[in-house]
Automatic annotation (TrEMBL):
Signal sequence coordinates: none
Positions of transmembrane segments: 6-25, 46-68, 80-101, 122-141, 147-169, 184-203, 215-232
Keyword field: Membrane, Transmembrane, Transmembrane helix
Protein name as catalogued: DUF2306 domain-containing protein
Length: 249
């Protein structure tokens, strides 16, 4: 199990680094252009690898924490308490992987499905949204009494995001602008997971952030991602308003 976990971790890290670079292709390219579509496809494939490896790693740790994380167990440390702490963190990381995967699928299918949203309503996708919702509830259920701040923050984000996905899927009707907003918002949300991992794990060490800034390293990517989503949506809304005014004239 340890060896498999290590290989998955290497795949997870390499895919994450590549995704950090490739993300700027669809982000900066003209929307709908060949380069936007091509780089977006690369980014999506990397995200599938990141999420898949992450989910498998979390499953291994949750199944056998004392085997997979044996090297982290200090001499004299209580194995029961150690296993409980490791499982709590792995459950939290599993939620992040599910959240990123759900946002990625929602963003991709929003454009592919069109106003009918038939592929979004398949049990495979709605099952993923439901699983993310239940995992968010489970995380909040354990995080609140244990004062696990990260679990409270991201449990709330995952809960809100999964409910938003369900509302879009089952809305009576959607406009073309709604498709693009759903695509942009969820693709940016999936990227937040990559940047969160960079700041919270690698970036915190590279930038030499102290313990007092650990929470900031987790929360900052989400704050910036939400701000970027609002900016994109406002920019697109202004662009459509300008086109309508020009058409009237």
């Amino acid at each position: 199990m340890q060896t498999l976990h290590q290989y998955l971790l290497i795949l997870h890290i390499i895919s994450g680094v590549l995704a950090l670079c490739v993300f700027w292709g669809p982000m900066l390219a003209k929307k709908g252009s060949p380069w936007h579509v091509r780089s977006g496809r690369w980014y999506s494939q990397l995200m599938y690898l990141i999420c898949g490896a992450g989910i498998l790693m979390c499953a291994l740790v949750l199944t056998a924490p004392l085997v997979v994380k044996a090297a982290d167990l200090s001499p004299g440390q209580d194995p029961v308490k150690f296993a409980a702490a490791v499982r709590q963190m792995s459950g939290f990381l599993l939620l992040l992987c599910l959240l990123a995967l759900m946002n990625l699928r929602q963003g991709l299918l929003a454009l592919q499905a069109g106003p009918a949203r038939l592929s979004l309503r398949l049990w495979t996708h709605q099952g993923l949204v439901a699983l993310t919702f239940l995992c968010a509830l489970w995380t909040l259920w354990h995080a609140v009494p244990r004062q696990f701040v990260l679990g409270q923050i991201f449990g709330g984000i995952a809960l809100f995001s999964s409910v938003g996905c369900f509302r879009y899927i089952h809305r009576a009707s959607v406009e073309r602008s709604d498709l693009l907003k759903e695509h942009i918002g969820n693709m940016l949300a999936s990227a937040i997971a990559v940047f969160t991992a960079f700041f919270a794990f690698g970036g915190r060490k590279v930038l030499d952030l102290g313990p007092e800034l650990q929470l900031l390293s987790w929360v900052l990517p989400s704050v910036l991602g939400i701000a970027a989503t609002l900016w994109y949506n406002r920019r697109y809304a202004k662009g459509r308003a300008g086109l309508k005014t020009a058409a009237v004239r």
